[in-house]
């Protein structure tokens, strides 16, 4: 069973990302969107936690990154940018969606 | 009637777009600026994200209000404090922020930086010196 985890809160304001990382199993996907995209930036205080999640694939929603001024070079390694259609595809490809609101 | 000028501080603590706080703060700042008071803004925590350069909301259907920060100087809002510790925690430096300036009419309209990088301790002193602090 593969799960798509979604995170839409800033990792500095809520513990949604930390909780999600604690439960995301190998083979699952994590999509960051809205204020959750700040968790995809390199060099910040949560970057190490994200990098340490083994076997988890990370995605970030492009339009939300763009709105917040987060260009590709500001992203941590291993983050794949998707558009709205990509969001839908992830929801379809995985068996279920777990929203860490 | 004597005019009393008070020190107003708008403390911005949240990221833009995800919630309405950042935008609402700007609205109140612009209203307050019309009353010729001593206005300052501070950006701490996720509030520093409000000033990130290159915001582009064209694909997400939201209003890009980041350009409003650049207009603050024209409203005599020239003191924008940014907390160093908050930038560092987020892997950011001043170079990641929008350049914000104002023109000093008492100094032959010289262009001056509005952003003042301060430590948490320094900002605590600035806050202590205010008459009114609004937190957003």
Overview of this structure, please?
Chain A has one domain (3-99): Hypothetical Protein Ychn, Chain: A. Helix content of chain A is 30%, strand content 23%. Chain A contains 4 helices and 5 strands, in the order βαβαβαβαβ. Chain A has helices spanning 16-23, 47-52, 62-67, 84-93; strands spanning 3-7, 29-32, 57-61, 79-82, 96-100. In chain A, α3 links the parallel β3 and β4 (79-82). Chain A is globular and about 35 Å long. Chain A starts with a strand and ends with a strand. By secondary structure, chain B is of the alpha/beta class. Chain B has a single domain, classed as DsrEFH-like (Hypothetical Protein Ychn, Chain: A). In chain B, 24% of the residues lie in helices and 24% in strands. Chain B has a 5-stranded parallel sheet. In chain B, strands 4-5 form a two-stranded antiparallel ribbon. In chain B, a hairpin with a 5-residue loop joins β4 and β5 (110-113). Chain B starts with 6 loop residues before the first strand and ends with a strand. The mean pLDDT of chain B is 95. The A-B interface holds A 8-10, 12-13, 34-35, 38, 41-45, 47, 62-64, 66-71, 74, 83 and B 14-19, 45-46, 49, 52-60, 62, 64, 66, 89-92, 96.
Q: Can you summarize this structure?
A:
Chain A has 101 residues and is of the alpha/beta class. Chain A is 30% helix and 23% strand.
| The CATH C-level class name of chain A | Alpha Beta
* Shape verdict of chain B: globular
Helix-strand topology string of chain B: EHEHEHEEEHE
Strand order of the largest sheet of chain B: 6-3-2-1-7
Biggest sheet character of chain A:
5 strands, parallel
How many helices of chain B in DSSP terms?
4
Protein name (chain A): Sulfurtransferase complex subunit TusB
GO molecular function, one term (chain A): transferase activity
InterPro entries (chain A): DsrEFH-like, Sulphur_relay_TusB/DsrH
Keywords (chain A): Transferase
